[in-house]
Amino acid sequence: MLFGWLVEAGVTSNSVLYVKDGATVGIGAGEQDRVGVAQIARDKAYRNMAHRLAYQWQGVSYDELDEATRAEVDAEVRAANGGLKGAVMVSDAFFPFRDGVEVGLREGVSAVIQPGGALRDHEIIQACNEYGATMAFTGQRSFKH
Fold first, then answer.
1. How far is 104 from 62, CA to CA, in rounded Å?
2. SS3 65
3. Helices (H), 59-132
4. How does pLDDT run across 67-84, given as a tens digit for each residue?
């Protein structure tokens, strides 16, 4: 969580990112809403994992794979939720509603770190509890403009 919070300090606002095993998995930034940046970061995590597997398996980018190998990579990426299972979701500002945090929770993130301070923080906490994820509030925003 601390690693993710430190990375977040260098990402342009508004942003959500996912980290796992000391590396960023996906970064979404610059959107006007938490849901949008969480989805962008999720989609990038899926794409990043597909490219990584393509290079590991075939030594080429995902776009250069034949159709059969691409289908195998896609299946592996889907099974691992783009590498997001067990990742930490990091937000530079509070989640105003639970729909933003649920983007990551549905993918299997194990923890969420965010500033807190929303009127509906109790709903975000409830969502994390329902998914069995840890929630940490930093008490500070991490905006970079």
1. 24
2. coil
3. 67-79, 98-107, 121-131
4. 999 999 999 999 999 999
Go through 16-44 and write b for each residue having 16 or more CB atoms within 10 A of its CB, e for each that does not.
bbbbbeeebbbbbbebeebbbbbbbbbeb
What fold characterizes domain 2-137?
Cytidine Deaminase; domain 2 (3.40.140)
Bridging pattern class, strands 88-91 and 15-20: antiparallel
Query: Any idea where the domains of the chain sit in the sequence?
Result: 2-137
pTM for the full model? 0.93
Q: Which residue has the tokens 């905006």?
A: 143
Per-residue model confidence as pLDDT tens digits over 35-46: 999 999 999 999
* Backbone torsions φ then ψ of 91, nearest 5 degrees: -125, 140
